[in-house]
Amino acid sequence: MIPAAAAQSSADREMRKIPNNGNLKMTKVAYPLGLFICLFIYVAYIKWHWASATQAFFSITEVASGARRGHQAHSAPGTAAHGHEVFYGIMFDAGSTGTRVHIFQFNRQPGETPTLTHETFKALKPGLSAYADDVEKSTSGIQELLDVAKQDVPFDFWKATPLVLKATAGLRLLPGEKAQKLLQKVKEVFKASPFLVGEDCVSIMNGTDEGVSAWITVNFLTGSLKTPGRSSVGMLDLGGGSTQITFLPRVEDTLQTSPPGYLTSLQMFNRTYKLYSYSYLGLGLMSARLAILGGIEGKPAEDGKELVSPCLSPGFTGEWEHAEITYRISGQKAAVNLHELCASRVSEILRNKVHRTEEVKDVDFYAFSYYYDLAANVGLIDAEKGGSLVVGDFDIAAKYVCRTAETRLQGNPFLCMDLTYISLLLQEFGFPENKMLKLTRKINNVETSWALGAIFHYIDSLSRQKSPAL
Ligand SMILES: *[C@@H]1O[C@H](CO)[C@@H](O)[C@H](O)[C@H]1NC(C)=O
Ligand SMILES: *[C@@H]1O[C@H](CO)[C@@H](O)[C@H](O)[C@H]1NC(C)=O
User: Fold this and answer.
1) Average pLDDT over every residue of 442-460
2) Same domain, 277 and 168
3) PANTHER family, from UniProt (predicted)?
4) Hey, which residues does 386 pair with through a beta bridge?
5) Which of 470, 341, 467, 365 is nearest to 426 (CA)?
């Protein structure tokens, strides 16, 4: 896009210069000439990028009509003859272990909520944080992913397609200065790209942002953002470091009794949602394991001492690596009724940590990440397709696995601990035993990551800025 823009602006300059000379004849020649040069460079550029002939044709007609209309050429590139609009959004998910690009294509009928029509993604390892000490090296990976976006988004949509990077856990843990340097570098690369890049194009998400974005994704995919009357669904996520719960309260009491920091306001499609959303740092599954074992985050055990837990099989000894520290761990000797001992240890860890709401009983919830993995691990749901279960199923599975662990070592030594933890965590949130949860990775065949909700919200906020009357 740069050569075309350059051609356009040089044509502009000429247009401005020539009337100053007061030569009317020259102006008459300069307009078609400028247009011709502009077209020529455009076509050459497209050829150079191996674009298809039809695409080149569209680009040329765009430029031709754009030249007539002035700078509005690309303001609505997707408005086709039959009235629906196609648009794109590019979201980089900078996670702790890798960077992933999602390229979303949407379609919108006039006056309706957009639908997702296509998604492309590509992931690269390692994560951005691996370049903390050499930021220059981070650019080639970003560039590679940008090239994927350039191939996926048609040329004449580039300028109108927002490009955003949001970083999660990995960068959140880096010292502030190092993280900022990395983000600044990404921003430079983004600004040099042909996409729509705002000042807020790179940022670090906190747990609440992540939970809210995932909530948008789920409700967008289930269609409940579309039809305002339709009841929304809640979202439960269990990561390694933190766990999130997000839902839209309908009961006034929930809004009244929630502590500050648990309610967050979200604007989407001309509506304001007051969401209940909280991210519990330290209650993710891996952090919880460490706490249950009696270890401290970021610190090796004193004198390499062994961490002993009633949640591990009595005969078990081994090593466990967490956050780049290796801990020696073992089960408690001669333990009887492992599940009871383990549950009482886990309850200690969870005591007074979690805010409980009555309303969760009445909201439909989707659960993701480790909730899914653990349930699939013990056969409560299909590992590929997901499924539904009731909260009490985790308790039944925990009791069974822990009983087995009393006498037998298991492939996954943490299974008794993890299931007990999940079961009690859900109870702490206020879910009764018979509460049904949906566990899935995909809704309508689209992966349920926060990235979709985050780009969607970003695009919506851009359109609000454009037309504040909405
Ligand atoms: C998370 O970040 C958002 C801005 O992205 C901010 O509005 C919110 O207060 C933050 N929440 C917490 C709990 O830090
Ligand atoms: C947005 O909401 C206002 C007030 O509820 C309404 O008057 C307006 O028509 C809505 N706009 C759109 C685009 O839905």
Assistant:
1) 93
2) no
3) ADENOSINE/GUANOSINE DIPHOSPHATASE, ECTONUCLEOSIDE TRIPHOSPHATE DIPHOSPHOHYDROLASE 6
4) 382
5) 365
Q: Rounded to an integer, what distance in angstroms lies between the CA atom of residue 372 and that of residue 386?
A: 7
Which token pair is 311?
């949640």
* Same-domain pairing of 326 and 409: no
The predicted pLDDT at position 303 comes to 86
Average pLDDT over residues 444-468: 88
Tell me how far apart the alpha carbons of residues 151 and 382 are, in angstroms, rounded to a whole number. Answer: 35
Residue 376 in this model has a pLDDT that exceeds 80: yes
Give residues with Cβ within 8 angstroms of 457, minimum separation 6: 212, 213, 216, 266, 268
Cα dist from 454 to 218, 266, 270, 369, 457, whole Å: 11, 12, 17, 18, 5
362 assigned to some structural domain: yes
Residues 193 and 46 occupy one common structural domain: no
Mean pLDDT computed over 427-433: 98
Is 240 annotated as belonging to a binding site?
A: yes
Angstrom distances, CA of residue 394 to CA of 201, 376, 399, 427 = 41, 11, 9, 11
For residue 385, what are the contacts with CB-CB under 8 A and spacing of at least 6?
none
- Asked if residue 224 belongs to a domain, the reply is no
Q: Is 293 helix (H, G, I), strand (E, B) or coil?
A: helix
Q: Which residues are catalytic?
A: 210
Helices 2-21, 24-48: axis angle to 10 degrees equals 170
158 in the same domain as 101: yes
> What is the CATH number for 191?
3.30.420.40
Dump pLDDT digits (tens) for 199-226.
999 999 999 999 999 999 999 999 988 8
CATH code of the domain in which 360 resides: 3.30.420.150
Ligand-binding annotation for 180, yes or no, is no
Q: Do residues 67 and 61 make contact, with C-beta atoms less than 8 angstroms apart?
A: no
**Pocket residues: Cβ below 6 A from ligand 2:** 270, 470
Residue-number span of the structural domain to which 274 is assigned? 230-284+348-444
**Could you report the per-residue pLDDT of 271-289, keeping only the tens digit for each?**
899 999 999 999 999 999 9
Q: Are strands 242-247 and 271-281 parallel, antiparallel or unpaired?
A: antiparallel
Q: Are residues 252 and 300 in the same domain?
A: no
21, pLDDT greater than 90? no
Q: Is residue 214 part of a domain?
A: no
For the residues 281-309, what does the mean pLDDT come to?
93
DSSP conformation letters of 444-455:
TTEE--HHHHHH
Query: What is the chain's mean pLDDT, rounded?
Result: 84
Measuring from atom 13 of ligand 2, which residue has the nearest CA?
Answer: 470
Q: Residue 41: its pLDDT value, please?
A: 57
On the question of pLDDT at 43 being above 80, the answer is no
Give the atom of ligand 2 at the shortest distance from the alpha carbon of 269: 14
Residue 137 DSSP SS3 = helix
Do 280 and 311 fall within a single domain?
Answer: no
Higher pLDDT, 76 or 175: 175
Residue 247 located in a structural domain: yes
Cα of 90 vs centre of ligand 1, distance in Å, is 22
